[in-house]
TrEMBL record, chains A, B:
Protein name stated in the entry: DUF1993 domain-containing protein
Gene3D superfamilies: dinb family like domain
Family annotation (InterPro entries): DinB/YfiT-like (IPR034660), DUF1993 (IPR018531)
Originating species: Hoeflea marina
Amino acid sequence: MQPAAGRWFPPHQSGDPMTLSMYSMTVPFYSSMLSNLEHLLSKAEAWAAERKIDPAVLLNDRLAPDMLPLKRQVQLVTDHAKGAVARLGGVEVPPFPDVEETFAELHDRIARVRDFLHSVPEANFAGAEDKIISMKVGPMDMSFPGLQYLQGFSVPNFYFHLTAAYAILRHNGVPVGKGDFFGRG
Amino acid sequence: MQPAAGRWFPPHQSGDPMTLSMYSMTVPFYSSMLSNLEHLLSKAEAWAAERKIDPAVLLNDRLAPDMLPLKRQVQLVTDHAKGAVARLGGVEVPPFPDVEETFAELHDRIARVRDFLHSVPEANFAGAEDKIISMKVGPMDMSFPGLQYLQGFSVPNFYFHLTAAYAILRHNGVPVGKGDFFGRG
């Protein structure tokens, strides 16, 4: 069933109905939102260049003294995407050391994570909704059935850090808006 | 299958495996995250009272002059939750006028939305993943298959506004952290 012509769809997705599966809930959305993050970072970088602002000022800014700076927010967005896809897809979580200090390095990390997301076979996700996912978060042992891990932990964390990154840009006056958060503009 | 004793689960969810459905992806998570928002607002309110800060200062604060203030972020979090559950559950979206000006009124709105979420019968969500959802967002007509509407529009918007609310509190020095975002602490 196709919707009426001329209506807006998120550009990263066709209008085709999707089958409900742990794969379809995960890889397409994380991948497209990571593209949107690249779009936001590209706009921030161009804006800084135009105004002769040292990119490091943006990359190290934070909203409160005990919150994480932009570069760490970006690293964590990618960590939650690759962590979920690896754990639900039954492969090792690829370790990515947190060494990025420039926009170019963050772009490279995002691209590597998107490549990883698309490298895990869809068939691996069969039944992942009730597979028990166990992990250490700081000092805490956590276990969740797969659906709860995805929708109650991974997705909230992913958007938490993505929105924190966006909010740091907005608070600095970078000319981005909600449309950019969704990859438009 | 039960996980080992002593492990941490989000308090709002049992450790039981969940069936993958549009209902199980939606109502339990929106409901529990709305509880977490109430927890965040309660801490903010208590902190303001203790320091003799007018609650309206927090409720009208924003991270950038052209971003929305805390009270509107809270209204929008609830709008995205009730919008998704109504549309996917095949009932009218209940209109809630945006009139709240106090913490007590915001708490009341959140409670009414949680009641609404739990009022929509689970059976209504059968097949909602490929039902076409059409809506107007500002001047734009949007249409999505249900899964794409939920995971690519409603969920990102819900967490966008929830995190924006959290970020406004953090930026004002309200003593909340990531644990509070997940309802602990």
